[in-house]
Amino acid sequence: MDPKASPSHLSGFSSFSPSFDDVYGNDNSMKNNNLELDNNSKATSSVDESQNGGFVIGEEEEEEEEEVFEMASEKPSVAVSGEKANEGDYTDAPSMDSPVFSMTKSVLPVEKVSVNDDDDDDETHVVEVSQVRVLKEEEPLGGGGDKGIKGILGEGFVNKLEIESENKGLRGNDISVEKRKSEVVGDEQSVETNELSRVGEVESKGVQITDEGDVVVDTINVDTLGTGAAVVGDVERIKDMEIKGLEVPVDGNVSLENGSDQINTNDEPPVELKPVQAETDSQKKMESVSSTNVQTTQVQPSEQDVDVPAKDIVDNHEKEIAEIEAKSDIEGKQTELEVERVQPIGQDVDVAAKDDNSCTGNVVVDSHVKEVAEIEAKSDIGGKQTELEVGRVADVVEHVSSAKVDAGDGEEIQAAEHEAESNQVNSVHEAERFENDKNSVDSPDHSDIEVSLEAEAEENHHQEEDYDEIEGSATDGETDGMIFGSSEAAKQFLEELEQASGVGTHSGAESSRDHSQRIDGQIVTDSDEEVDTDEEGEGKELFDSAALAALLKAATGADSDGGGITITSQDGSKLFSVERPAGLGTSLRSLKPAARPNRTNIFAPSGLTSGRQTETNLSEEEKKKLEKLQQIRVKFLRLVHRLGHSSEDSIVAQVLYRLALVAGRQTGQLFSLDDAKRTALQLEEEGRDDLNFSLNILVLGKTGVGKSATINSIFGDEKTSIHAFELGTTSVKEIVGTVDGVKIRVIDTPGLKSSGMEQGANRKVLSSIKKFTKKCSPDIVLYVDRLDSQTRDLNDLPLLRSISNALGSSIWRSAIATLTHAASAPPDGPSGSPLSYEVFVAQRSHVVQQSIGQAVGDLRLMNPSLMNPVSLVENHSACRKNRDGQKVLPNGQAWRPQLLLLSYSMKILAEASSLSKPQDPLDHRKLFGFRAPPLPYMLSWLLQSRTHPKLPTDQGGDNGDSDIDLADLSDSDQEEDEDEYDQLPPFKPLRRTQIAKLSKEQRKAYFEEYDYRVKLLQKKQWREELRRMKEMKKKGKVTAEVYGDMGEDVDQENGGPAAVPVALPDMVLPPSFDGDNPAFRYRFLEPSSQLLARPVLDTHGWDHDCGYDGVNLEQSLVIASQFPAAVTVQVTKDKKEFNLHLDSSVAAKHGENGSSMAGFDIQNAGKQLAYIVRGETKFKNFKRNKTTAGVSVTFLGENIVPGFKLEDQIALGKRLVLVGSTGTVRSQSHNAYGANLEVRLREADFPIGQDQSSLGLSLVKWRGDLALGANLQSQISMGRNSKVAIRAGLNNKLSGQITVRTSTSDQLQIALVGILPVVMAIYKTIRPGISS
Amino acid sequence: MGSLLIREWAGFQQFPPATQNKLIDLLAKLKQENVNTLTILVMGKGGVGKSSTVNSLIGERVVTVNSFQSEALRPVMVSRTKGGFTLNIIDTPGLVEAGYVSYQALQLIKGFLLNKTIDVLLYVDRLDAYRVDDLDKQIIKAITGSFGRDIWHRSLLVLTHAQLCPPDELNYDVYSSKRSEALLKTIRIGARMRKHDFQDFTIPVVLVENSGRCNKNESDEKILPNGDAWIPSMVKAITDVATNKSRAIVVDKKLIDGSGSDEKGKLWIPAILGLQWFIVKVIEQAIKKDIRRDVIAKGNRLY
To answer: How far A1195 CA sits from the closest chain B CA (Å)?
Structure first.
């Protein structure tokens, strides 16, 4: 490996000094590189974890947000950090807060709503919604996620509330929503966010809110938040727009987004829907919660949007009203509430409500569910956009004519699907017109509106379907087109509205805008802007148009643009502001910027832009996969429902969690648990029998344990004959039945014999079973044994082994240990009193699991999580039964549903994992197969300091590139040293025999003297070489023969007098001659040409003999006789992977103090090849200071990752070198920043003495997670024959590693020290908390 | 036999008075028969309740019982005296390991039993198991092989976990008789007894319920579902066996080392040698005769 590479291996994030290579003696850079990768991956993973823990996204970039979302989706715990700075002033605050929030994992959402300053404006109190709702999910599974979302929502509400207060008296109305504990201090309104309150709670709250009025609405939102973050976000948006609170809304949105990327917005609506459901229930009662939820979610967003526009259009008061109405819509049955509250606004509101209703009502439920699933399936962006579009269209339609128009739109959309865009646009226009008309109509009668809404609802159903289709088919372009259409339509609407009826039109326009907002987080921000403008009193139309434009842009899918636009609009201060269109700038208020930071942090980056991008980037396969996953989830939830279990059941929760894991990153709106739940509930209530689920069960077990009886119990029917004393089942047979609508096919088998002598008979049975299973492979294997047979002494081992051998040990993966006779009384414990049932079951389960593990011979024994699940069965007719007639165990559990649930769960999980199979289950995060590249890894790669290839003439020269400052070695020193050596008296080395005769003291003295002389000699040689190099440089002559390739900096550092031109550090030979050691066999003795070829040794391999798994080739050459170039190719291949690593670089020297290098690298990154083009320039600005600046562009799959770095190296004295580097890489609008600081301390006469230490600190910030790592390396000579290298690393996640290497030619016993790492490893394994 | 300190049978006092009375009667009966020492060997598969049965019989917790692990890795003898009568009960480790009969355990047991006399063998199995499999047969075979077929004349079949609710709506007595029949049949086959042998004597079956939650009757005796107080019945069955006409099994060196197959055929060795010699002789003569005939034939041709 070339020297260049070597530093990289050593250094994780911080580059270690190359000299360590010697110590490690590993030539193989590849391995090292891999290690680095690992480090990186760890870093990323750690980030994820932290996210999981609940991140508050403060100012973090989009990337971060996305991840957070994902995480949230995966794991229930979503900490939404929406901190809102006060309107004006606290831009920074959010970021800071957010982290804190994230940190807090307390179940209680810490919502600190502090009313910050009142801005100059009237009542604008920015409620800082700095509340961190760090809602942590208590449960890893969905429940938790919901909660987390809720927490976020709570924040959003707070913001909204505040906003409202600003706008009008609404504040007074503002009610503090107590659901969550978050208190909005803002305008006297303390909104208490509910803690993790579920939908039900939310609903109730929501209802309250509605009662109260505007405030109520806000609260409702909060509720919705509880259910679904997205809803809250919308509400927030609306509010923000109205008030200045835009910031706050943004946060809400962000939080939502966090929950589920872009999809999040969608998700949010669903979430909201749930709360809404409650409300709706109260109002409508009739609607099923699930359905209502879905509907509400959809509706809510629209409503929110609508509200916002309404506000904009209407005066502040009006706006407020409109908002309120919108809120009410969102909350419960939006339309009604809205209408009631403010009539003028109400019309607008009504429209919005209608839209919402329609969505929520008929359409919403199905559509949401479907949409969610569909959306997931589709690319996020596409799906979202399409959805958004639809939503928009629908909204527009709704606005225009809430019911009919919407329906029409929906239908159109459906029909059009792909083509639909244009059609849709047209429809939109039409819809707008209609809407205008209708709006006027609607305004008169709320009831009418409602009716229309219902109609819409029907239409909505259609639309839902359409949406689905659209999602599936719709491409980004289409969506874009759609968006444009909508924007145009919106504009038209606005105009129309304005013309037609002030309020109504306004509302309509608003609604349209809102819709657009809904579509994208960006849009939302746009809407906020609009609102702001409205508030300002500027031309509403203008704003609208601007907003529309922004929306359009966002919608069109220019992620960056959209994000930028939004962000900029919100706060000019941020990065994104630059991107913002100039036209919008005027509309921005000074206040807004302050608020926006929050939004941008939370919101814009992750959710909107990046989220979309990711969505768009989702391949069709992934979309399909997600869709399927969602279907699976729905299916599972339906099954759970049929079994009468709740989704809080621990098994259910686990399954849902794992499903979320399988979904991986793209768990946005497309993959919303809430939606799945709603869908499932709805489908179940509809009594549909379309559950495409069947189960093949293979029943195995010893004879007479109750296999057939268990089967009978499962079916609740005498399907097979049982007999106590004779063989009940004599041949393998298939029993088919239906349980809860699930077709179950059971393969009943004759009992197996446990006797070791009878395994022949077992084999016969098993082979016939195998024949059977070939026809229909079992999903589940029930290994039946008796709970009360105290099998010990491994009695079942032969039997279990036979099963493993005959059917393959993989069947145990789907095996459930089924223990019959579960109602039998526990035996007496050691104390003489009977054991408790739980202990009995646990012990017995353990025995069975252990036996299975032993028979399979895997590591199950060590890992409880891999144990086969256990279910209990009691077939006895006298078994106690509960009220439902189900047999219950002594612990009160009804076993049959439990067994079925377990079976379903396993099948579901198997289905899900089969979906993700093609991807390689191990990197479901695609750590290195990235859609999103592993930026930290790229970063560390970038930050490595590299040596520039040099012309042979320049080798060792004191140019800008050299790591060693020759100047440090003063001539006088050299002279002295040389003199010292020359002046020594002659010294005659003794022979071994002579040494043996020496006394101990003599020997010691001899060795000291000997070593001293050797050292001096080495120094002398070293110095001579340096001098020669200097001379050569001066003369400008090439004496290539002598120096060849020598002088690679790394080599110099590593090996001291690097007189031999070896690009790779020489292979380290084992200390003792061991014929088996391949190092001797494949020793690379003499380079005969410029091309160096050598084997690559994997020193970490277990195999003593076959450590070689690759070949390394390298060549140094000179191009055009002035550009030195070096090429290194290393190819390694083992059973698992093939790795290719190519480094090539060309350098050009600029005078004495500067050097530029261009390089091209190819290397494996996961399963992909990364192509890296890099260039850097190094110059020596002072004698002891060298600065390097470089850029790199990495092409990884479809990603292009640009990077920039800056490095500075300062030598302090001879012994101390300070290296600092910083850099950033960017991918898909995610940025990763990193900084390394390294201090190297070397022995005074470094090249000769090998002692050196280095301390590296590295800091990486990526996706909002700050990874801090410290590495310490020290290499010390101990005695004359031993060297110890210690390497320790620790990061801020408190995971670390310690490596101690000793090499000695002394006593072999010392090698025992090598046990230390082993002991450490064991210790860490035992206490996993210590390491990672 | 008395290597261990023989303690007073304190556990006897733990029995309910009704049981004590019955037991005293039985002991008196034994004394009548001039039996002052009773050595009971308990054998069976692992986990069927051997140790628990021992504890129940003694009335003390003399052997540790663990439901999920085999505690008894080597035989344990518990000795108790009561009024000049000595009761020795030998608990043994389970005879099955990893699906095979553990001949190692058997060897341990035999070593432990050296120079002891077995008056009664309790062969323990569970009543609530439904099937008899080949392993049971092998265990029986192993026991038979170790101690001779005669040991079954001094044995009892003890079925534990007798407090059960029979499956298939079977009557308890029917169930237990079916279960014991199945086991007895196995024993008969395993011990390779001929039908008429088997008919000569019957192995008594005793049902046992060792659990602490065993039902009790009004006099506080543990009873079976059919109402029998099982401890007295077991002791009665034991005394019956101990006093039947069969010989107690004395475990001596010969028994432990096997059936003495080294000795068995020794007498035949000279006879077989003689026979061989005779046969060889005959063959030799035949060959010689053949050669001679051949030579003659050649000679005929020459001439």
So the answer is: 59
